[in-house]
Structures
1.
Amino acid sequence: MELTSITLHTGFDAGPVDPRIFGGFLEHMGRCVYEGVYEPTSVHADEAGLRTDVLEALDQLKMPIMRYPGGNFVSGYHWEDGVGDKADRPTLRELAWSSIETNDFGTDEFIGLCRKMDWSPMMAVNLGTGTPEEARNWVEYCNSPTGSKYADMRAYNGNVEPHSVPLWCLGNEMDGPWQLGHGPASDYATRALQAARMMKNVDRRIELVASGSSMLELDTYLEWDRQVLEVLGGVAHYISLHRYVGNPNDDTADFLAVTNAIDAQIEAADALCRFIQAKHGHRRRVLLCFDEWNVWYKNMDMDGAGQVAPHLIEERYNLEDALVVAGFLNSFIRHADVVKIANIAQIVNVIAPVQTRGDDLLIQSIFHVFAQYAARREGVSLQPSIVGPTYESPSYGTVNFIDTSAIIDGDQLHIFITNRSLDEVAPVSVVLADRTIRVMANAEIVTGNDPKAENTYDDQQVVTSQPFGDVSVSDGHATALLPPLSATAMTFNLV
Ligand code: AHR
């Protein structure tokens, strides 16, 4: 393959990378909570019933923020069912996934988990079957000092100090006809504004996420967002985007080109936010919260059939999926000026980087790519200029074989490079025009010959992260030879 030149300059940046783009999502769905993070009967359980093996793995992903409790689940969830003495909590027929919800895990258990993991909590309120007042009361329960009903309820439940939840989603996927309580955008916007005002009245410091378009395929795509932002544009700090992608036609090259569509989705949402700001003269522009994203198309089991912790959407991930995860992260980093929060969906068992089976744990391919980025996430995003060979994707148009993003952190440069070629090594040069690359500090690669290769419980080394050394530095520039189907993360020391 011909050389690809990546040129960077510290004067061309997209601003600091918000660490929250490496967030996660914990939903009461399938086995994400129960048999995922929480399983008191497991040999791995700690005194709080949390699975230490799962948490030790997730700890490597350094997620700064965790979204909870849904997802579609939240649109039928009444938070008071999940607090207080466990013996008094109701067991309920759960409405989104046709499961049984025991409510053994609720707000206080989630906050305890966040404190243990150093995750900042991000809560979604129920604007499906719930009321704005119920949402407001949850903010009081979590964030108010004692001295009023719901804050005193929290203290009575063992937490005198406020939980101080800084970020709240105003519902989930309210544009989707599948969502409990779905209606026209104007109905949602009115209800969300009522909730927002009451929630902010309890705690003025909180930031709010308006529920944006969840699927490009819906007729309301972008028009939903426009109507919602007309009403919430001066109140919400962020609008949500969701994206699940797949390879249903079994065309790896096409699948890997999906980054074009992720870029376009971000840029369209941002354009709308700029339009609303300009139209209404808002001082602050609404920014983007990509609070569900991942590969998801192989396992569509979504009927819980009246079970507690049913096996739902337990997607198995292979090498090509891992490269697409790298593509999402590259796109978020390139758009660091507008994408401030992103949550991989989800964290365990349900479309997740780790799975459990009894007391065993499986580390999936996507885990390793996420970890490569998480270890290098601090700094300022640099805008890469790429000149190199391209190919045509039937679904997404022309793409470079090389996909990339870069972060500068003082005297270090982190660069992430995916080679989308199925069979050719890609020679790549990296030039930081106004600085000198002195030496490579470290580099890791996820690669393999077979795009469908995946880890199993018996062999967890099939798709994993390996040290990478095929890099040379001379005259202040770096050159690497990147194997086909690879995601590489490199850190260079600068002069
Ligand atoms: O993450 C699984 C589900 O996908 C979420 O509950 C929902 O928000 C989305 O449709």
Note: The longest strand covers residues 437-447.
2.
Amino acid sequence: MCQHESTAAPKKRIFSGIQPTGVFTLGNYIGAVRNWGKLQDEYECIYCIVDLHAITVMQGPAELRNNTMRAYALMLACGIDPQKSVAFIQSHNPNHAELSWVLSCSTMFGELSRMTQFKDKSARHADNINAGLFTYPVLMAADILAYNADLVPIGADQKQHLELARNVAVRFNQRFGDTFTVPEPYVPQNGARVMSLQDPTKKMSKSDENANACVYILDDKDTIMRKFKRAVTDSDAEVCYREGKDGINNLMTIYGCVTGKTMDEITVEFAGRGYGDFKIAVGEAVADHLAPVRNEYARLYADKAYLNECIATGSEQAYRMTRKVLSKVYRRVGFVDHK
Ligand code: TRP
């Protein structure tokens, strides 16, 4: 028997999504998208630009359209290979929205009310507390459950949403019979949380008002250098990872992620040198690391025909994978077959 087709267990399935709300940050890259690429051989991966989720906060139509195409191209530039993974745009597969409705009838008002992201976002967008913002986690559950994903790479801020998806899956399965895989969070071994360069106790975020707080993966070298030179640190001068040194810890984490060096190696490298030197080294390492991503993005973004082809293939694959699940759900719930 040929070794490849053997008895090996089937690959586990991974689903993850990212919102098309502007260029990815260094935090999105190091914490999420870069790792997505590394999972493609070991797992069956499905990656989605979640434009349906994006409209839970106000978006200009032209901007959303642009941002969605950019996000798709960025995803490929970060190493997602559309030959290996299913890479698509959420609104192109109507099964997400359809399943979301059914799941919303197995989700309790009370449990959605407890979502901390809903509370935060409704405080930040008090003029637009729409129902979609409230049911956002149900759509996210539909994204995951429609594919029977085994594993979901997510950051800490999405843990509560994944927990909800698990609860909804279990509840539906109990009521209607085994239908959905109950997904587990996937925590990458070297997944790091990147903090703001201006307030290293907060996560790096594109919604930060301070432009120096956040590095974007398409920033040019001068911009990257400037942001790192201005990064907030502390008043001693030792490059070492220690509690209370949030700024330095963050810079060391970033430097380690882009160079592959350990904290000890970094400490030795910068022993006796000041923070100024270290910040320049981090800026350079980040700029060098991101240069190929920027180039690849420019190449892809100029090739709309190729991008559109990838998007079309991805959404077809996604549709086929999920239609079967949705049909099963409809039968289980008791909808009459349409012949
Ligand atoms: N809510 C996620 C975020 O903002 C994005 C997302 C949507 C997602 N659907 C998903 C992530 C499904 C993982 C799985 O980061």
Note: The longest helix spans residues 304-333.
